[in-house]
Amino acid sequence: MKKRSDDMIFLIIWLLLIGYAVFLAPPGEDPDPVFSKILSGDWGGIDPLVFAVFNSLGLFPLVFLTILLLHDRQRWPAWPFALLSLGTGAFSLLPYFAFGDRPAKKRTRVRTPNWLVRFLSSRFWLIVLMIMWIGNLLTLLQGFSLAAYRDAYFASGLVSVMTIDWLVLWGLSIYATHRYFPDAKAKGLAWIPILGPVLVMWLNRKDLQPK
């Protein structure tokens, strides 16, 4: 019963996210000022906090890719949604959690090839994720402004949508950590954005590879 209620919550969040992106996000300028600077390589003209949040949308999916592919034995294959999330974030992951994350009738083993399971659960890969998180965090040492972020939020549709997407991905990462690692140690670390779930997997590496 609880899983059914979770499914409905994910569906509602997905619809609200789409509704926000389509109807409520500020139209801003055309072309989008932040997106234009990203495409032109003018990264110095973007507030470091805006840039760090943007980069986070590339790191969150790598965490989900790791978690979901290590447990890809549910009704729907997880890998297409995990891969699509690299470009669309929570917009791709929410349908999977709403409809596909249910026990399969016959499948007992994960779909992910053994070599990929070994790689995703390796110290090397988890360290790579940690290094990327640290590298993104160092962006903020350039100095950032909450006022500048607020202005960008209301002036750029990209910043507006990606902010909401970031918050949803953060919540999903906490849920996924508790969902797929119910007996893991230090699950409270999952509240640390991006790094937290990676630390949980690091501390529970012996239990990462599915039986």
Could you walk me through the main structural features you see in this protein, from its secondary elements to its overall organization?
The protein has helices at 2-24, 33-40, 48-69, 79-88, 90-100, 114-120, 123-138, 146-155, 157-180, 195-203. It has 211 residues and is mostly helical. Helix content is 66%, strand content 0%. The protein has 10 helices and no strands.
Topology:
Layout: H1 2-24, H2 33-40, H3 48-69, H4 79-88, H5 90-100, H6 114-120, H7 123-138, H8 146-155, H9 157-180, H10 195-203
Helix pairs in contact: 1-5, 1-9, 3-4, 3-7, 3-9, 4-5, 7-10, 8-9
Quick summary:
With 211 residues, the protein is mostly helical.
> Low-confidence segments, ≥5 residues, pLDDT <50?
none
Classification by helices and strands: mainly alpha
Report, as a whole number of angstroms, the end-to-end distance: 26 Å
Q: How large is the radius of gyration?
A: 18 Å
Shape, principal axes of CA atoms: globular
**Proportion in β-strands:** under 5%
Order of helices and strands: HHHHHHHHHH
Average residue pLDDT: 91
- Percent range for helical residues? 55-70%
How many distinct helices?
Answer: 10
Largest sheet: none
Q: What is the count of β-strands?
A: 0
